[in-house]
Recover the amino acids of this structure.
């Protein structure tokens, strides 16, 4: 006997599932838009599909469908037969602009996206803490990969400067600071502030170039070393650990927190920043998904909950522990030495 129409699933539920299933298609439209440099082409004036197709050596019909897709995901607007950038594309995807994030988008496409292809195998093979003593994946945490993420990290530094009052502090230890982007953003906002970026020697070379470009080399020092083997630098009153906690296991993280506590003066503060899960471990969604990113890159740990990190700080001796979301899904947790 055939099912009646009343037995059919709700159309909205079916649409919801299919929409979830084609999320990768929207992502690939964004990746391709960045790779082709469409925003650059349309920076000066709107163009028709045929003109864009000629400039990018694409069949006009294929270009028309791709540009329509870019409109549908919010990257372009169409006026008559001409396309122009949306504010989103104009601000973040035009190369050379201050907040250009094309490098970050290309990183998702070329480095992150392929790693997710074998997620079932990664889930089955990942072992907690197994890679704690191994060199980090070059494609994930190497100098080139970090350079691609520089502008996004710089934005985080500038937003953190507005969310947390650094006016009463003198010097930041930016632990695992990558390109120094967070320190640059903070020092640009606070004219009195100094920083020490501490990261692996091969990454510090990249950091020094960005610091020099920012003309902050007299206020930002770049020091190479391995926090698991080498002593941390001295004379700081703020310790910043941004996107840091999943690069080591729990024991190593607690060890470095103890060392930071010992080196901080009374009144000093430790700031953990990143995609930190809420206590349900179900949100924010970006943080939940990036836990799987950690697993795909075979990191020794994944992001923990706000409660867990707060407890680690309290166990170390920090007090007045609090947290705040300061940019989209990014949160900081801070604790003070009294």
């Amino acid at each position: 006997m055939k099912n009646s129409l009343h037995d059919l699933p709700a159309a909205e539920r079916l649409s919801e599932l299919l929409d979830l299933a084609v999320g990768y298609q929207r992502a690939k439209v964004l990746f391709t838009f960045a790779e082709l440099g469409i925003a650059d082409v349309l920076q000066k004036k709107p163009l028709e599909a045929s003109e864009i197709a000629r400039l990018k050596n694409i069949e006009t019909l294929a270009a028309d469908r791709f540009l329509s897709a870019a409109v549908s995901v919010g990257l372009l607007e169409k006026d008559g037969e001409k396309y122009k950038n949306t504010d989103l594309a104009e601000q973040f995807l035009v190369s050379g602009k201050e907040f250009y994030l094309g490098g970050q988008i290309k990183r998702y496409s070329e480095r992150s996206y392929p790693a997710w292809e074998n997620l079932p195998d990664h889930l089955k093979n990942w072992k907690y803490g197994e890679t704690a003593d191994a060199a980090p994946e070059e494609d994930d945490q190497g100098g080139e990969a970090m350079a691609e993420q520089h502008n996004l990290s710089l934005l985080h530094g500038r937003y953190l400067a507005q969310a947390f009052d650094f006016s009463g502090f003198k010097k930041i230890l930016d632990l695992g600071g990558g390109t120094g982007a967070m320190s640059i953003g903070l020092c640009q906002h606070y004219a009195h502030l100094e920083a020490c970026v501490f990261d692996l020697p091969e990454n510090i070379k990249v950091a020094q170039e960005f610091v020099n470009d920012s003309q902050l080399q007299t206020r930002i020092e770049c020091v190479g070393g391995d926090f698991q083997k080498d002593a941390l630098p001295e004379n700081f009153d703020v310790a910043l650990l941004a996107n840091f906690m999943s690069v080591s296991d729990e024991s190593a993280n607690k060890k470095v927190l103890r060392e930071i506590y010992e080196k901080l003066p009374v009144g000093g503060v430790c700031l953990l920043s990143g995609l930190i899960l809420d206590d349900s471990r179900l949100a924010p969604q970006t943080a939940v998904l990036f836990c799987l990113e950690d697993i795909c890159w075979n990191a020794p740990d994944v992001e923990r909950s706000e409660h867990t990190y707060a407890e680690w700080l309290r166990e170390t001796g920090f007090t007045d522990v609090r947290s705040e979301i300061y940019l989209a899904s990014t949160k900081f947790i801070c604790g003070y030495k009294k």
Summary: The mean pLDDT is 94. Residues 23-36 form the longest helix (14 residues).
